[in-house]
Amino acid sequence: MAMNPEHDAPAGHDEARRTFLKQSSLLTALAFVPAPVVDAAAANLDEKVAGAIEKVPLKLEVNGKKYKLAVEPRTTLLDLLREELNLTGTKKGCDYGQCGACTVHVDGQRVNSCLSFAVMHDGRKVTTIEGLADGDKLHPMQEAFVKHDGFQCGYCTPGQIMSAVACVREGHAGSDAEIREYMSGNICRCGAYSNIVAAIQEVKNGGQKV
Amino acid sequence: MKAQDKQIGAPMNRVDGHLKVTGAAKYSAEYELPNIAYAVLVGSTIARGRITSIDAKAAEKAPGVLAVISHFNSPKVPGFDTAGKDPSQPATAGGPIKIFKDDKIRFNDQPIAVVVADSWERARFAARLVKAQYAPEKHKTNLEASASEAFLPTAAKKNPKHPMNDYQRGQADAYKTGAIKLESEYVIPTEVHHPMELQAITAHWEAPDRLTIYDKTQGTMATRRDFAREWNLPEENVKVIATFVGGAFGNALHSWPHESAAIIAAKVVNRPVKLMLTREQMFTMVGYRPYTWQKLGMSATPDGKITAITHESIGQTSTYEEFTESTLAQTRMMYQSPNVTTRYRLAALDIGSPIWMRGPGEATGAFALESAMDEMAFMLNLDPLEFRLRNYTDKDPENGKPWSTKFLKECYQLGAERVGWNKRQLKPGSLRDGEWLIGYGMGVGTFGAHRGAATVGAQLLPDGTVLLQCATTDIGPGTGTAMTQIAADALGIDPKRIRFELGNSSFPKAGTQGGSSTVNSVGPATQEACLALKDKLRTLAGAGNAAFASAKKEDVTLADGYLTLSSNAAAKVSYADLIKQGGDKAVTVEAKPGGEGQKYSMYSFSVHFAEVRVHELTGEVRVSKLVSCADAGTIINEKTAGNQMKGGAVGGIGMALMEAAHIDDRFGRYVTKDFADYHVPVHADSPDVQVAFVNQPDPHVNALGTKGIGEIATIGVAPAIANAVFNATGKRVRELPITPDKLI
Ligand code: FES
Ligand code: FES
C-alpha cells in the first residue's frame, strides 16, 4: 500500500495558517461589501437606515418587460432574477462562473449571470429562458432539446439552451467538435451531451431564425 | 394516435420536457412562499474536537439578520433525544449528525451555526461575521494511514449471514498457489456526486405541528419519515415535495444536516426558510463515493480458465456512521472460478459520511475486477473478450441459482461490432495516428434487478383523462414519462390523456429512487392500477348495461367521452354517467414482488467498449469512442433509456480520467472546492456515446420484463477506459483518475 502518512504540522504553523485563513476570509468578505454596509452592521443601525444606504437604483429590461428597481450593489444578476423577479428558470449551479447553469443573454450576448452584479447592467436588455419562446410557440432550440432529449434532470437545461442559441448565433456551431468546444462552459452532470449536440446541429442545419 | 399503438418501447418525448425547456420546472429552492427568509450555514474550521465558544454578536447586529442559531441556543429537537431511534438509517451502524445538539466536531466544515436573514446577501455577509473558538483534537483523514485499524462492519459482526461478511467458496486465497497469477492494488479516490442543482431545501412550518418541505430528495417517503421522527410528529403531519430534482446520483438518498438546520431555522424565525448549499459545501456534508483501497489476486490456467480470485477492499466511512456498499459483489458472481475469497473492511475517519454514488460500490469493485481481467488476459496472451467468454457463467456461481435472464454474450457481440474491436491489437502501443496512440478496452458491469413494493392511484377525471399519482421521484431518468407509456398501454388510450404526478409524500407510497429499482417497482404498480381502474369502470357501467356486466376488463375501451367495448362498439356509457356513480374516485393498487428472488438470481448486465487516443508527449487522454450495451430487460423508452446510458458513460469518463476530491491531511480539509479543481466531464470530454440494448424481457422480475439501467450505465466504464489506455500505451494505471502525469 502506498504510504501517505498524516503530517504533523509543526506547532505554530498550524495556528498561523488558521489565523491567516480567518483574516483572509474576513478581508474577502469586506472586499465584496460596500463600506456603508459594514458600518451599518457595526453601528447596529436601524434597519430602514441600513436599507436606504444599501440600495442603489437600477433600470433593467427583462424579457421585454421594463423594471425600475432598487438593489444592493452586491446582488448578482442571478440572485436578482431568481429571488426578486421570481424568474427561477435561470439556475444556480455553482455561483462561481464555472458551470453555465445561470447563462442568460445581456444585449444578445451570453453571460454567466452569477458572475456579474446586477448594477453592472443598468439600462440593458436581459433575456432569460422564460423569454425565449414566442408566447406559446417554443423557440426552435427548445423544440430541438425536447425532440432529441437534450436533458435528464433539466437543471442545466435553461443554461444549455441559452448558450446553444448564442453558440449558433455566434457562428460557432460549424461541426460537432466546434459545438462541443463552444458549449464546454455548460456542464451537464446528467451527461446528456450527445443529445444536446444533436439538438444544436438540428437547429443549425434547419436554418430557422434563432 | 390510435389506441392500439403500443407505447412501451416507443421513443416518446418526455412528458415534462416542455416544463424543463421553458424554465417552468420548479426545483426545491424555487417555490415562492410569503415572507420567505434565507439561511446560510457556518462550518467548522477544524476536523475534530469541540467548540468552546461562538461569538455571534456582530452577525446578530448585521442588517436583516433574523437569527443566528447554534448549539448554544438551538431549540430542542425532540427526536434527537429519543433513544435508539436514529432519524435516518441508511448506515448499518451509528447514526447521522444531530445538528446543533452538542459541541462536538466530527468533520471539517461541519455546520456549527446557521444565520437567517431576509436576503441571501445579508445572510451570507452575516455568516462571515460568526466567529468560533475550538479545542481541537488530533484528527485522521487519510485512509491508508488508518488501514491497520480497518474493521469488519458492525452489521456483519452481529449477523453471520450479512452480505458484508467475508465470503469464501473453495479454498481461501487459492490464487497464491496458482501457476499463472497476479496480485494488484487499486485505489479509487473520493468522488463527489455534484449534481448540477446544489442541495437545497425550503422549510415551512404551516402550523406548530405541521411541516412542509420542498426538498432535494430521492425518496419523499424516507425524508418524511426522517423529519417526522426528528420532530416526534405523526408522519401525515409532514409533507415532502420534490416534483423536480436537479440530479442527485445518490447524494439525496440520505437526510443531511443542512435539511435539519433549515427546519430548525424555520421554527425559530417562524417563517418559511430557504437554504441552498454552496458548491464547496457539496464536498463536505452531503456524501461522496468513498476513497477505497482494493487488492485483487487472480490465478488462471494457461488455456484461460480462472482458478481463483481473492478481492479485498477497505472503504472509508465517518466516525459516526458506518457506511457500507457492495464493492465485492461482482467478483463473487461474474466469472466461473472455483475458488473465490472476498474481504470487506471499513476505516473510520474524521470526515462526513459517504453515500452511495451512481453504480455505487459495484462501480468501485468493477474497476479492480475488470482491470485485473485485462491484466490476466494480457499475461495469457488472450483477447480480453475471449478470456471473458471462457469464464462466462450460465448460472450464478455464488449461490447456484439460474439467472432470471442473462444476455451478456449478446451485449459483448453488439458492442464489439460497434466499437470495431477487430482493430484491437494484443500488443500495446501497436496503433497510432501521428502523435496519438490508439487503444481499445472493455469493462463489464452488473447490478441486482431490485424491485420493491409500490402503490399507484388511478383516477378517471370528468374530461375522460386519467390522473395517476405516486410518491416516487424523478431525479432525471424520466420516471413520469415511462409510467405514462406503461399506463397508456394498460388503459389503451393516448398518452396525452394521462397525467402521472409524482414527487409528493402525500401521494400513494413508493420507495426511494435508487438502486435502479424505480421502473421495476413503480412500473407494475402503474400497470395494475390502470387495469384495476378499467375493471372498476366496467363494473360501474355493468350496473346499468348488460354488455359491460359480462365483458372482460381487457375489452374495456376508454374512448373520447365514453366507455365502450372493443368487442361491441354499440355498448356505450358516458364518463359523466360513470362519475355520477362514483367513477371518479381513485383506485389505489399496491404491487409487490413475489418469491421469484428465491428461485432466480436477477441481475442487469452491461458491457462498455472504449477507444482512446493518448497523446504520446503530453499524456492527454481523449475518449474517442464509447459504446455501451445493456441487458436491462424490456426497454420502456429507447430515447430516455438511451440517454440514461449515455449519462452513465459520461460519469464513467469522469471517474476514469478526472474526478478526485483531495483532502489536505494536515488540516483535514478539502482543498478541492469547486469545478475549477474538481473536474467533471464537459461537452469537449464526451464522445458521441453509442448505446445498444438487447431489449429482451425478463419474465421473473415483473410482468413488464424490466431489470433497471441507472447503475449498469456507469459500472464497468472506468476499467474499460483504463484498459484502453493500457492497450494504447502499455501503462497500467491502478490509481484513478488517469491524469496525464501518470502516463508521462
Ligand atoms: S451558477 Fe453561474 S456559472 Fe455556475
Ligand atoms: S440535465 Fe441534469 S445536469 Fe444536465
From TrEMBL, chain A:
Record key words, sorted: Iron, Metal-binding, Oxidoreductase
Alphabetical list of InterPro entries matching this protein: 2Fe-2S-bd, 2Fe-2S-bd_dom_sf, 2Fe-2S_ferredoxin-like_sf, 2Fe-2S_ferredoxin-type, 2Fe2S_fd_BS, Aldehyde_Oxdr_Iron-Sulfur, Beta-grasp_dom_sf, TAT_signal
Superkingdom, natural source: Bacteria
TM spans (from-to): none
Name assigned to this protein: (2Fe-2S)-binding protein
PANTHER family in the cross-refs: OXIDOREDUCTASE WITH IRON-SULFUR SUBUNIT, OXIDOREDUCTASE, IRON-SULPHUR BINDING SUBUNIT-RELATED-RELATED
Gene3D superfamilies recorded: 3.10.20.30, [2Fe-2S]-binding domain
Annotated ranges, domain 2Fe-2S ferredoxin-type: 56-132
TrEMBL record, chain B:
UniProt xrefs under SMART domains: Ald_Xan_dh_C
Signal peptide limits: none
Keyword Oxidoreductase on entry: yes
Residue ranges occupied by any Aldehyde oxidase/xanthine dehydrogenase a/b hammerhead domain in the UniProt entry: 22-138
Entry keyword annotation includes Oxidoreductase: yes
Keyword entries, A-Z: Molybdenum, Oxidoreductase
A Pfam family assignment: MoCoBD_1
PANTHER family: ALDEHYDE OXIDASE 1-RELATED, XANTHINE DEHYDROGENASE
Protein name per the record: Xanthine dehydrogenase family protein molybdopterin-binding subunit
Organism: Hymenobacter lucidus
